[in-house]
Design goal:
Blueprint: E1 8-14, H1 20-37, H2 54-57, E2 66-72, H3 73-77, H4 82-87, H5 89-95, H6 97-106, H7 110-120, H8 125-135, E3 139-142, H9 148-158, E4 164-167, E5 185-188, H10 191-199, E6 207-209, H11 216-219, H12 226-232, E7 241-245, H13 254-263, E8 269-273, H14 278-287, E9 295-298, H15 304-310, E10 313-317, H16 320-328, E11 333-337, H17 344-352, E12 356-358, H18 362-373, H19 378-390, H20 395-405, H21 415-428, H22 441-453, H23 462-473, H24 475-486, H25 490-508
Helix pairs in contact: 1-20, 5-6, 8-25, 12-15, 13-18, 22-23, 23-24
Bound molecules: uridine-5'-diphosphate.
Length: 526
């Protein structure tokens, strides 16, 4: 069965815990689009080792005829209580970062992660299976650690061999859940992350040190001088400019640092990006009336590259996305703290490589800024040189090329079509020794359902899908049923058909890939 070019599909699995995962997926997708639009970019700057079959290795990918879908798998596919649990990430890192850190540490080993995941899996497995059946991707890219093992499990149960790549979006404090044996490729951003992956069972040939995916706009030379960019943003062109950020959630010391700078007498101006933290946004909008430093307070913004190019220094929590973006813009970094567990290693990364300064208290922030913003500051010059040297601004392009290599050539059957064919072959030519076994009803029913739904883009009958998954998963489904019985959630599991349909309808409305889920707040005269 030939697959029309427009059917080739890359599925990015993300979760909007913070904003880094969506930013990374958007960045890779943007790089893929740019590769398609300008063929000159298609020759890799860094050679990407390729260990697959010579036939596929020698294929020249044409960068066209694909489309991409970015899906928050927890919003689209999971159910209560997992869905609710994941949505608590924002409040947890704002109000109880230590508690979150405990959770990170407790689950950060092979056995403990497995135990935790065994409890969580029933609340995501079926929705994810719906998503994969409905979208039939040719390549899946996971940009979130909690989606790797389960996606591989669903693909194994469905017996469909879709290339599955993980892009690790933590710099050095890597959670064990990132390491999923069986992935086609695992992309890591730093040497520490590469070592962690290899020492935790990932085959070295599948681990690629390509850098952190950041939007190509961060690496592009700005359209003018800093003064010109400031003027365009409505800022004073001649005043040193501090950018304050706390990740997508506006967390970890952002409010205190903004208050300290605002009430100081430094000859500077500042822009505070509160992200999705509406409480902080409102508080700072009121407080800035008392500030002596000219201040712009913003909500969740889409033009971070413009602000980074216009600023002299950034004050931020140790978010891997923000650190990597600041490095690409040649911006020295002042770190106010880190999300316990997952970002603590980034503080060491920044201080050991002399990319910035660590200032955990408001007075330390002021000291650091005074040192960096004195005219001709030697420290500022040193930090700028170091961030420029360590940055990997082309990472998104390298990752995009790796993904594009996995798209099946135009006209060749997709993994889903191959799965259908092989299921048919198994059914009509049973191998000796398999005759006594039950026919593979599961996949056969599944394929019939595929065929029935093809073209009409209709979701599968939930009951039938459940039967298919039960047949495919055997004992596992019995264990799941037992668990759901115990916690009284069986009814939810059986009702999930209608839930799944509603979610899939939402998935089917393709998003503009540069848009974000967060409400954009007013930009207060910037
Ligand atoms: N970001 C953004 N707009 C905002 C706040 C943040 O686009 O208003 C982006 C930022 O550029 C970065 C990501 O959100 O790409 C934050 O990622 P990071 O890893 O620093 O922190 P997280 O939010 O994931 O904790």
């Amino acid at each position: 069965m030939s697959v029309p070019p427009s059917e080739r599909r890359v599925l990015f699995l993300i979760a909007d815990t913070g904003a880094g995962h969506r930013s990374a997926a958007n960045a890779i997708h943007h790089a893929m689009r740019m590769l398609a639009e300008s063929p000159a970019l298609s020759s890799p700057r860094h050679a990407i080792p390729d260990h697959r079959s010579p036939a596929r290795t020698s294929r020249v990918y044409d960068n066209s005829g694909w489309n991409a879908l970015i899906v928050d798998a927890f919003v689209a596919c999971s159910r209560f209580p997992l869905r609710k649990g994941v949505s608590l990430y924002g409040p947890a890192i704002k109000h109880s970062p230590r508690l979150y850190g405990q959770f990170f540490r407790i689950t950060n080993s092979k056995s403990r992660f497995r135990t935790a995941w065994r409890f969580a899996k029933p609340f995501l497995y079926q929705g994810l299976a719906h998503l994969l059946l409905e979208t039939q991707p040719d390549v899946i890219v996971s940009v979130h650690p909690l989606l790797n093992h389960i996606t591989l499990q669903v693909l194994r149960d469905l017996d469909v061999r879709v290339p599955f790549l993980t892009v690790v979006t933590d710099l050095v404090s890597i959670h064990y859940s990132w390491m999923a044996p069986g992935v086609s490729e695992c992309v890591v951003p730093t040497e520490e992350a590469r070592r962690f992956a290899v020492s935790n069972g990932m085959p070295a040939k599948r681990v690629h040190l390509l850098g952190m995916p950041i939007d190509p706009k961060f690496a592009q030379p700005p359209a003018g001088t800093r003064a010109m960019l400031r003027a365009e943003l409505g800022l004073d062109p001649d005043l040193p400019t501090i950018l304050l950020v706390g990740g997508g959630e506006g967390a970890i010391g952002l409010g205190d640092a903004a208050m300290a700078v605002g009430l100081s007498d430094m000859p500077v101006q500042m822009v505070v990006v509160c992200g999705r933290n509406k409480t902080l946004y409102t508080r700072l909008q009121q407080a800035r009336l008392r500030f002596r430093v000219p201040t712009g307070v913003l909500g969740f913004i889409q033009n971070m590259p413009d602000l980074m190019h216009a600023a002299d220094v950034i004050v931020t929590k140790a978010g891997p996305g923000t650190i990597s973006e600041a490095m690409a813009c040649g911006l020295p970094i002042v770190l106010t703290g880190a999300i316990p567990g997952q970002e603590e290693g980034n503080i060491r990364f920044v201080s050991e490589n002399e990319l910035g300064m660590v200032a955990r208290t408001p007075s330390a922030v002021l000291d650091a800024l005074r040192e960096l913003l004195t005219p001709c500051s030697p420290r500022l010059a040193l930090l700028r040189a170091n961030v420029g040297r360590m940055s990997r601004p082309e990472a998104s392009f390298d990752i995009a090329r790796l993904i594009l290599k996995y798209l099946p050539p135009i006209g060749s059957p997709s993994a889903w079509a191959r799965a259908q064919r092989s299921a048919a072959a198994r059914r009509y030519r049973p191998r000796p020794g398999h005759l006594s076994r039950q026919p593979r009803q599961g996949l056969h029913t599944l394929n019939a359902a595929f065929t029935a739904s093809r073209g009409r883009r209709r979701t599968l009958q939930g009951g039938r899908l459940l039967a298919v998954l039960r047949a495919r998963t055997g004992d596992r489904s019995r264990r799941i049923a037992r668990l759901t019985d115990i916690i009284g959630a069986r009814a939810l599991l059986l009702r999930s058909t209608s839930l799944g349909k509603g979610q899939l309808r939402r998935i089917h409305r393709p998003r503009r890939l540069d848009e974000d889920t967060a409400p954009t707040q007013s930009d207060d005269g910037m």
